[in-house]
Amino acid sequence: MKTVYMPYMCDHVYAIEAAFKALGQNAQVLTPSDDESLEIGMDFTIGKECSPCFMTTGDIVRLTQQPSFDPAQSVILMPTTAGPCRFGQYASLQRDILDQAGLEQVEIISPSAANAYQGLGKNSMKLRQLIWQGTVATDLLQKLLYEYRPYETNKGQTDELYQQGLAHIKEGVQAGGGKPLIKAMQWIAKQFEQLPVDRSEPRPIIGIVGEIYIRLNSYGNQDIIRKVETMGGEVRIASMMEWLYYTNWTVKNNAQHSHLFLSFISISIVDFYQQHQEHKLLKTVEHLLRHPHETPVAKLMDNIRPFYEPALDTEAVLSMGKAVDFAHLGLNGILNLMPFSCMPGIITAGMAPRIRADLGNIPWLDVIFDAQGGTHFNTRLEAFMYQATQYQRSTEKRSGVENRKSVIPEPVALTT
Ligand code: SF4
């Protein structure tokens, strides 16, 4: 049987691997990108592509260089999009690279964001259901990680719990999702209820938006989340499920404008199913989170209408809508992450001054990752964190509140 290989973008990819396995298909997540695979990727590209392209290309080529690699038994999963940005070209470029290396036998499968990833073979519906459930579960586990780790009293305990939770999620998805996955989430909830934390020192909360690959890939973003935490902050990050809801919204919107009634009904049913599954999984951990709920994409789009037309598409609209959402939730700073020369990232950065002005000049930093290690990255981040802390204090002062504990409720009475 062939094996489906998938580049490691983030931990959600393990849920995709588990979903394939649940349906009896061999699947394997590639070794996460590192300096070695980045160098390989840059050798096979011309340097004008975006950094996720270097990274995924390097990961794939490194796989093909393994002595045990069998081209005839290998399939690469590389999603695509019909949008105007370069992501739609990754799979074509990688096809050319494999062909030139004499690896024509290696298949590339490319489900597209343009139809909300419906092109996933014979068992497409069940596979997508499992991927969705695994994605939501991983998002929820990450929300717990980011809300708890900065306050843990035993260093390293939250990370350990996160890894155990991830393993439970994989098992739950591989067992067919549904009840086994709910059980996995209940186990996770129980562990987090018992995790010792100290929330007496309020931290500024930073919202992370921007290009999805760089935002979620810690190698690509130079571990920015840990850096923010080390510098005294706490993060909220635009989730993976938000992107999938956004693809639904786009398909629905296009169908509506083109009077494609059946397409509209079909994507509405998918969207309804996904929300239903999300709520079922969320119920298990909702009591542990300060910000458990996903803001509906339609609301995010309404957020940016005063500044930009959502129908113009690309991740820029999501990033801007989410930044406004984070500010409305009372967060203290926005980090907009993007690969070097990322088109949606540049649009978002260009619109940032207008959006910020409308949001009380919330601290905002555009961070560009150029796969070169990032000049002055730490210094800029430190200055931003200082601004976010000052902004947090000044907003609390303006609202006549002595400390943040009385503004943001404690998440839950922890059992010991
Ligand atoms: S979103 Fe940006 S980084 Fe990602 S493929 Fe498009 S242009 Fe490249």
Main attributes of the structure:
disordered C terminus; binds iron/sulfur cluster; Rossmann fold; 416 residues; 3 domains; 53% helix
Mind explaining what this structure looks like?
- Mean pLDDT is 92; it is low at 403-416.
- The chain has helices spanning 12-22, 35-43, 51-64, 87-100, 124-148, 157-174, 179-193, 212-216, 224-230, 240-257, 261-285, 297-304, 315-328, 343-358, 377-398, and strands at 3-6, 26-29, 74-77, 107-109, 205-210, 234-237, 333-339, 364-369.
- Helix 1 packs parallel to helix 6 (157-174), helix 2 (35-43) packs across helix 3 (51-64) and helix 13 packs parallel to helix 14.
- The N and C termini lie far apart (49 Å).
- The chain folds into three domains: 3-110, 3-Layer(aba) Sandwich (Rossmann fold); 121-200 and 241-289, no CATH class; 203-239 and 294-411, 3-Layer(aba) Sandwich (Rossmann fold), CATH 3.40.50.
- It is an alpha/beta fold and 416 residues long.
- The chain has a four-stranded parallel β-sheet.
- The chain is built from 15 helices and eight strands.
- Residues 50, 52, 85-87, 211, 315, 339, 342-345 line the site of iron/sulfur cluster.
